[in-house]
Write a structure and sequence with these properties.
single chain, mainly alpha, 2 strands, 64% helix, 1% strand
Length: 412
């Protein structure tokens, strides 16, 4: 049995690696029409002294990108102002060279992460490699598009691991706070930084101080930058993406789905479902309540102890509510999925683990363009074209049910 596990596992690892090379490394080596442009151009303009507040003018930013030789253009909104700093070290090279350097760095990082997970959390290395290989689609997407999510996920792993091994609170809190000034989501991972089963105050304070320091610093550099950012951020929270609108199915969020169902779309001249702002808000509120109540009940069952499994389920729930998502965003779920798989594998029958992994892979793999069109049922057609959202929703509900009703017992 053990031998067959290693044979099947090795085969899956090989398939996963092949996909990453074919869909991530090879196209990413020469592809200059990707998200990397957005980071690179903003860093380049920052170095030359352009005011960050101007970056939120899409036309201005696009034209500046063309001026500096980025032929496919770029867009900064709705990034945070701090995002402009990220790729500054890469501005010493031209666009293609910089992207290749970043790609190679990410490939090396991918090789390094399994060893860190194994050391920091005392997991078997082969099991760690297998779980990491489940992310072949998000990893390939991150490589191809020159994204930052694998790098951020590694830093989160280091922060949580430092707390686990050495009971450090302040430094992990500061690191997570700094990451949150760029991508928001890392702030959720403070829930892992705990002391005696409860959230660590030092970590919360460190994170707050880090965020406040960055805000003050950027306000000092450009006092108008946050007003420019706020104008696009408020729209972003409602799924209305700057330059892409509120109906973009590709970003697979509850907001986009509800906008398509209940908001008049000028591009097509009608509402797909029934035009009603009240219903749009109602369904969003109901989803928020569902995620919040289920999370609270799970924590309540365990007397509000913030263990790794309950915390991971809560983060899953938060992902269900994201106003926009892409394949590479799933890399933020690296640590939560490691904790959940470890819990399920250690305490239940194999069928539960197979069920979870199968649903996870479907969520990662199935894209909206893979779903057939139901031409005669427009509302239903919209609903079924959000496989990423529904995958996350079902996974959150399933593991929430397992935890709440103790279908799978807690680890000892």
């Amino acid at each position: 049995m053990k031998k067959s596990k290693y044979i099947l596992g090795s085969f899956f690892l090989l398939c996963s690696l092949s996909y990453i090379i074919l869909k991530g490394v090879l196209p990413g080596w020469n592809n200059l029409s990707t998200d990397f442009n957005n980071y690179y151009v903003s860093a380049k303009l920052l170095v030359t002294g352009e005011p960050i507040r101007q970056f939120y003018d899409n036309d201005w930013f696009y034209n500046k990108a063309i001026e500096i030789g980025v032929e496919n253009g770029a867009k900064f909104a709705p990034f945070t102002p701090v995002t402009a700093v990220l790729y500054v070290p890469l501005t010493f090279w031209d666009l293609l060279t910089a992207k290749r350097i970043w790609l190679i760095s990410n490939m090396l990082l991918l090789c390094f992460i399994p060893f860190r997970l194994s050391r920091l959390f005392e997991w078997k290395r082969f099991d760690t490699l297998l779980i990491l290989s489940l992310f072949f689609v998000p990893i390939a997407s991150n490589f191809n598009f020159g994204q930052v999510y694998l790098f951020f996920s590694w830093l989160i792993i280091e922060a949580v691991g430092a707390n686990r091994m050495k009971k450090k609170f302040l430094v992990p809190g500061i690191l997570i706070g700094l990451l949150a000034t760029v991508k928001y989501v890392p702030i959720l991972f403070l829930i892992y930084i705990r002391s005696k089963g409860q959230l660590a105050r030092k970590a919360l304070i460190g994170s707050f101080v880090a965020v406040l320091t960055i805000v003050i610093l950027f306000f000092y550099v450009d006092s108008n930058v946050f007003s420019s950012f706020a104008s696009v951020f408020s729209d972003h929270l409602q799924g209305d993406l700057s330059g892409q609108g509120k109906f973009a199915i590709g970003f697979q969020s509850i907001d986009s789905m509800l906008n398509n169902l209940f908001v008049y779309n000028p591009a097509i001249g009608y509402t797909v479902g029934y035009e009603s702002n009240v219903l749009r808000i109602l369904f969003k509120v109901l989803l928020i309540l569902y995620v919040f109540v289920l999370s609270i009940l799970i924590f309540k069952v365990d007397q509000f102890k913030f263990d790794t499994v309950n915390s991971s389920i809560f983060i899953f729930g938060a992902f269900v509510l994201l106003p926009a998502s892409a394949s590479y965003h799933f890399l933020f779920l690296l640590l939560p999925i490691f904790f959940i798989v470890h819990w399920v594998k250690s305490n239940s029958k194999q069928i539960y683990l197979i069920s979870f992994i199968s649903l996870l892979l479907l969520t990662f793999i199935v894209q909206y363009h893979h779903v057939p069109d139901l031409v005669n049922y427009k509302s239903l057609n919209i609903i079924i074209h959000y496989p990423r959202f529904w995958g996350l929703f079902v996974l959150f509900s399933l593991i929430g049910y397992w935890r709440l009703y103790k279908v799978i017992p807690q680890s000892k």
